[in-house]
């Protein structure tokens, strides 16, 4: 795949070159679309140049991985499927943190089986130290060294390619670096720069940066980037959507950024894939750079 065919261009991930605009499978579980429509949107993403899909076995209690396998297997040679461990589904369908090393191994095995692969290209460890989202308590308070040791063992066994981190601090990333971290997933957007120190470390070490909640989250954070007047004003000037402006700013902000917007809507997917063609003028970038402090 050439860079011109890759939405958003390309960047490195675990030694592979992937399109900077990928696909996040989490939204598939939340969609009211039919089963066939969800399969179709996954295929549309790949046909549109996406070769980086982000998922987890606990997304929809296995639904996301099942859809990926049904839609895309046998997988294209250039497809990088990234999974996440650190949580699992309870019998009632609710999520709970599962942070202990043996539990991480069980989750890796579950992802392997569900996706029908012998090796997971990248596995992200989702820590549970701070909100938003689940916070570890009791026996689920586990030191990161024990977790990394288990993931390293799985890597040595050939079941994992790269190890990533999710929901971590700069100190945790710095401490984990000797394990060979390849990417970081943290909440980050035009309006939420709390993970800027983590991003700076990614820049320093050339790590892939995969922001989640790139448009905010009314559910988790109580606000939505696409309603910000700076974002909506720039969108109106450029004739694009506020979401496209917010995502385009993330691509400009660091060349190692990989986006994983998710949807089950074909039109919305096309809008996401077109973000790489959005050109933000210098004055728009400057205004967006200042938007976080103006919103506080």
Walkthrough of the structure:
The chain is 39% helix and 17% strand. It has 296 residues and is an alpha/beta fold. The protein has one domain (3-223, 253-278): TIM Barrel (Alpha-Beta Barrel), CATH 3.20.20. Helix 2 packs across helix 3 (63-72), helix 4 (101-115) packs across helix 5 and helix 6 (170-176) packs parallel to helix 7 (196-205). The longest helix is centred in the middle third of the chain and has 15 residues, at 101-115. The protein is globular and about 50 Å long.
Topology, element by element:
Elements lengths: L9 E4 L2 E4 L3 E2 L1 H5 L4 H13 L4 E3 L8 H10 L7 E6 L1 E3 L5 E3 L3 H15 L4 E7 L17 H13 L3 E7 L3 H7 L4 E5 L10 H10 L2 E2 L6 E2 L5 E2 L4 H10 L3 H12 L12 H8 L8 H8 L1 H5 L1
Parallel strand pairs: 3-4, 4-5, 5-8, 8-9, 9-10, 10-11
Antiparallel strand pairs: 1-2, 6-7, 12-13
Helix pairs in contact: 2-3, 2-10, 4-5, 6-7, 8-9
Summarize the structure in short.
GO terms for molecular function: oxidoreductase activity. The protein is α/β, with parallel strands linked by helices and 296 residues long.
Largest sheet: 7 strands, parallel
Mind telling me the CATH class? Alpha Beta
With strands numbered from the N-terminus, the spatial order across the biggest sheet is 3-4-5-8-9-10-11
Please give the alpha-carbon distance between the first and last residues: 42 Å
Q: Provide the helix percentage.
A: 25-40%
pLDDT < 50 runs, ≥5 residues: none
CATH superfamily: NADP-dependent oxidoreductase domain
Number of strands: 13
Protein name: Aldo/keto reductase
GO molecular function, one term: oxidoreductase activity
Domain NADP-dependent oxidoreductase: 20-289
InterPro entries: AKR (IPR020471), Aldo-Keto_reductase (IPR050791), NAD(P)_OxRdtase_dom_sf (IPR036812), NADP_OxRdtase_dom (IPR023210)
